[in-house]
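Aim 2, interim progress. The first record below pairs a target sequence with its C-alpha cells.
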Amino acid sequence: MPELTPVHSTAQKLGAEALGTFWLVLGGCGTAIFAGEYVGFVGVALAFGLTVLTGAYAFGPVSGGHFNPAVSVGLAVARRFAWKELPGYVVAQLIGATIAGAVLLLIASGVSGFTTADGFATNGYGDHSPAGYNLTSVIVAEVLLTAFFLFVILGASAKRAAVGFSGLVIGLALTLIHLISIPISNTSVNPARSLGVAWFAGAEPLSQVWVFILAPLIGAAIAGFSYAFLLGDDD
C-alpha cells in the first residue's frame, strides 16, 4: 500500500510553531545571555543556527518549521503558505518566544548582580547596537539579510531541491546571518525573537523593537514577491 502523508490538526501545527520558536529563543538568546562571554559572537551565531536546524527536523514535519513571523509572511507572499493560517502562526510564535523570554529571565535572576541593563540579548541601534551602528545601517542590514534568509528558505524547500537537506541549509544560513550582523544589531531577522526578550528588558529595548518587527517583515515580503521572478517558479 502507498504510504499516506500524515495530516496534522491546526492545534498540532500551532503547538509545533510555539515549541520551535521557544526552542530558538531559549537556545539562541540563552547562549548570548549565559555563555556569550565564553563563546563569543561565533558561538552565539552557531547557537541560533543549531536551534533552527534541530527545530526544523523536530517540529518542521508538523508545522513547516517557520518559528518566525517574517518567514511565515514571506512564504505567504510567495504562495507557499496559506494566508488564512498566518494569524495563528504569528500568535503561536509570539507566545513561544515570550514564554522563552520569561524562562530566561527566571534563570538569569538566579545569580547575584544580574540586571537586564546588560542587554538581555535584545536588538538595538545607536547606543544599543553592539558596535554602535546607526538606525540606517541597522534597517538596511535587517531588510537585506531577512530577504536573503527567505531566498534560502524558498530555494531549499522547493520541490526541485535536494530532499532532506533543507533544515541543514537553513540552519547554516541563519548562522552566517548572525556572523555578519551580531555587531550591527545583535541580529533579529525575526520579530518574535526580538519581542520575546524585549518584553523583559525595560523601556529602551522596547522603544527600538519596532525596527526589528518592521524591517524583517519588509525583507521577507521583498523576497516572497521577487523569488519566482528572479529564480523561477517551483514547478
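The second target in this work package is listed in the same format:
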Amino acid sequence: MVSWIISRLVVLVFGTLYPAYSSYKAVKSKDVKEYVKWMMYWIIFALFTAAEVFTDMFLCWIPFYYELKIAFVVWLLSPYTKGASVLYRKFVHPTLSSKEKDIDEYLCQAKDKSYDTLVHFGRKGLNVAAAAAVMAASKGQGVLSDRLRSFSMQDLSSCQADPDSVDGEHESASQHRARSMMRSKSESYSKASS
C-alpha cells in the first residue's frame, strides 16, 4: 500500500505537474524544440496513463511493480535518456502515421454515430416522458377535472348561484377571494356586453 501511494505521488508530481510547468515555460518562450519535446512527452504520458488503468488491475501483484512505474516515469522525463522522445520516434509516430487515415475515418464515423445515437435516445426520452404525462393525466383525470375548472361564463354563473359552498364544504378565505374576483370580472363583462 505504501508503494502504491508513493508511486501515485511521484506520477502526480514528476509525471504531471513538473511537465505541465515545463510545457508552460516552453509556450512562454516560444521555443519550437521545447514545444516538440513536451508534445512528444504528453502523447507518451497519455498512452502510459491509459495503459496504467489495466496494468494496475492485472500486474500489481508483480514484485516491485510500483517501483518500476516510478522508474519508467523518471526515464521518460530524463534529459539524458530522452525516454519519451525515443518511444515516440521508434514506436508511436510510425504506428500512428501508418494508421492515421483509418483512425481519422473511425473518429469521423464515431462522431456521426454518437450524434445519431444522441438524437435517437433523445426522441425515446421525449416519447417516454410524453407517455408518462398522458398516463398520469388519464389516471388523475377525475381528480383533475374536479379541481381544475375552465372558468367559462357558465362556470362563473354557477359560482354566483351557489356562493356559500363548494362540494358541500365551507369556503376558505382564499377561495372566497377568488370567487369574489371572478364575480366582479363576470359582472364587468356582463355590463360591457350590455
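Confidence is low (pLDDT under 50) at residues 165-171. This observation will shape the mutagenesis plan for the next reporting period.
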